[in-house]
Design brief:
580 residues, alpha+beta, six-stranded mixed sheet, five-stranded mixed sheet, disordered N terminus
């Protein structure tokens, strides 16, 4: 009888504590949602209170599932598996609360979006420096939590427990990735913004009206000088004044030379012919040193579209020409209207330089909406319009793997990336009128399980029918490079992940010969298109992938043009992976 009573007591005890633990865990989950909202809204005081409440709830759940009765019950067949999983969930949540959430919430007490607005001409870097240890600790905690939650055995757990474990796994993975990104930023930002001494960067203004694989032709170049959070734009020069050099300023590898030619390293305006920004940046650094005798600490690239995003934060700026630059008119004015308004290329260069300086001066003064400013930088980075390279090896390792790095496509168990890169062949500004759509799809069409992937690129010349005569000669190129005015010549390079195998290509439903080259470990198929106003063409390329990544999703990176390209899903028949 005593044994029965003891069993009943144990069941009631564990059940009651389980219900209480469940309540604490549910409130902890609610706190996470609240915390994200508060941190997103820069309400750091409220975020610290919520973090403390989250820590209390998590600690209670851990305590309720850690007494001797619960520990003994974990060995009971069937029910024990569920109790053990709930205990493991409680431990993981408590570890995250104490080792990640609370330290980070405490560290961001001195940080908000307004913290990144210069005051007295400089950004206060000390809050970032102080946050470094807490964010680094959070990364370690979340990495350990990810391993622990992945190790929870759910093979025999009840559906609600299994669901809770899966939700926790997804949440921990997402948080781990986000905090790792934040850690990279807080670890390198202070030094790169001059906390430890003055830094100089070459700033490339890329013109999307004349495309380069990395974005656009570097039409204007400047020196960005930072010292202890203060930022100044100095020593501006036209990209055309760098080169031509007798030979490439740095040795080029075989893939770059074959695909884009030695001119990649002989003209500043051509350093972004390659989509590999680290290569472009090193070439730009070397050219700046040859011209000015100064070795810079890094290279930053941006385009007028990003400038238009920044204008949402700064508001309109007045230019010395009398023009008013706004977020709405920046792109058409800088990439199209300027050529009709100021036909002299030298005046155009001055116009671009004055526009960039006006925006940077307003940013340096702190006269902008900080939240909009951060949003503008984030959008520009996500769209591939903002790139950064550091000459410091350790800093560059932190940048690597982020959207800022401008790297070639990668493959993992989750995602296989392809690249679609465009280079202007018209020697003009006609790419303002070039529309592009990109689609990518994948299917397993072979018995060995290796996936076949197809990338489809459609280009269209949207210029007016009379573009050859109605547009300025500087825009059409005037036939200078052998292209009839009004037409658009484009080199299209499609990259596959490393270790892929090129299968074949078609253009407008017909098989087509292309240049096939290896850029490092990446197979590349490149062809040239020529489009009259209103004309379009569709190019398809097929690659064979690795069986280990057969179930991974597919996506495409793409040269950012005047309009942002959204990758679409592509379906194809395995019998004809390159349809006629």
């Amino acid at each position: 009888m005593a044994a029965v009573l003891l069993l009943i007591f144990a069941v009631v005890w564990v059940g009651a504590r389980g219900l209480l633990a469940r309540g604490h865990l549910e409130r902890a989950v609610a706190d996470v949602s609240t915390l994200r909202s508060q941190l997103g809204g820069a309400d750091t005081t409220a975020a610290q209170r919520t973090a403390q409440h989250l820590e209390d709830e998590a600690a209670s759940a851990r305590s309720l599932t850690g007494d001797p009765v619960w520990s003994a019950a974990q060995h009971v067949p069937f029910f024990g598996t569920n109790l053990r999983a709930v205990r493991q969930i409680s431990v993981v949540v408590d570890d995250i609360a104490t080792g990640a959430v609370s330290p980070v919430a405490g560290a961001v007490g001195g940080l908000s979006t307004e913290s990144f607005a210069p005051k007295g001409g400089k950004v206060d870097l000390e809050p970032l420096v102080k946050a470094q240890p807490a964010v680094a600790q959070a990364v370690t905690t979340l990495q350990r939590a990810d391993r622990d939650v992945q190790a929870i055995d759910t093979s025999d757990t009840l559906s609600p427990v299994t669901s809770a474990v899966n939700q926790l796994r997804n949440a921990v993975l997402s948080a781990s990735q986000q905090v790792a990104t934040a850690d990279r930023f807080v670890q390198i930002a202070p030094a790169m913004l001059g906390h430890d001494g003055e830094r100089d960067y070459v700033l490339l203004f890329q013109n999307n009206a004349e495309l380069r694989a990395g974005g656009g032709i570097p039409g204007a170049v400047a020196l960005l000088r930072v010292r202890d959070g203060s930022i100044a734009l100095e020593n501006q020069a036209a990209g055309s004044t760098f080169g031509p050099y007798a030979k490439s300023v740095l040795p080029l590898d075989a893939g770059t030379s074959s695909l884009y030619g030695e001119i990649t390293g002989r003209y500043m305006q051509d350093v972004t012919l390659t989509p590999r920004f680290d290569v472009s940046a090193k070439l730009a650094q070397a050219m700046w040193q040859q011209k000015f005798g100064q070795r810079v600490d890094g290279v930053l690239a941006m385009d007028p579209v990003t400038l238009s995003y920044l204008l949402r934060a700064t508001g309109p700026v007045q230019l010395p020409t009398g023009d008013t630059l706004t977020s709405d008119n920046a792109v058409p004015l800088l990439l199209s209207e300027v050529y009709a308004k100021y036909p002299d290329p030298a005046v155009q260069d001055l116009f671009f330089a004055s526009a960039a300086k006006a925006v940077f001066d307003k940013v340096a003064s702190g006269s902008f909406d900080a939240r909009e400013f951060i949003g503008a930088l984030t959008q520009g980075t996500d769209e591939g319009r903002l790139r950064l390279w550091s000459a410091d090896k350790d800093e560059q390792e932190q940048i690597a793997g982020t959207p800022l790095a401008g790297e070639l496509p990668t493959a993992s168990s989750e995602t296989r990336q392809f690249g679609v890169y465009l280079n202007d062949g018209t020697a003009s500004k006609m790419d303002y009128y070039l529309a592009k759509t990109v689609s990518v799809g994948s299917s397993v069409c072979r018995a060995d399980g290796r996936p076949t992937s197809v990338v489809e690129v459609t280009l269209k010349n949207t210029a007016p029918a009379d573009a050859g005569t109605s547009l300025p000669e500087y825009v059409t190129g005037g036939g200078f490079a052998g292209t009839e005015p009004g037409k658009v010549k484009t080199l299209v390079a499609v990259y596959a992940p490393a270790e892929s195998i090129y299968l074949g290509s078609s253009q407008d439903g017909k098989q087509v010969g292309v240049q096939t080259v290896m850029d490092g470990d990446h197979p590349v198929a490149q062809l040239q298109t020529l489009l009259a106003p209103g004309q379009s063409t569709t190019f398809r390329v097929a690659f064979l992938g690795d069986a280990d990544h057969a179930r991974a999703g597919v996506e495409a990176l793409s040269t950012p043009g005047v309009q942002q390209t959204k990758t679409e899903a592509l379906s194809f028949d395995c019998a004809t992976p390159i349809p006629n």
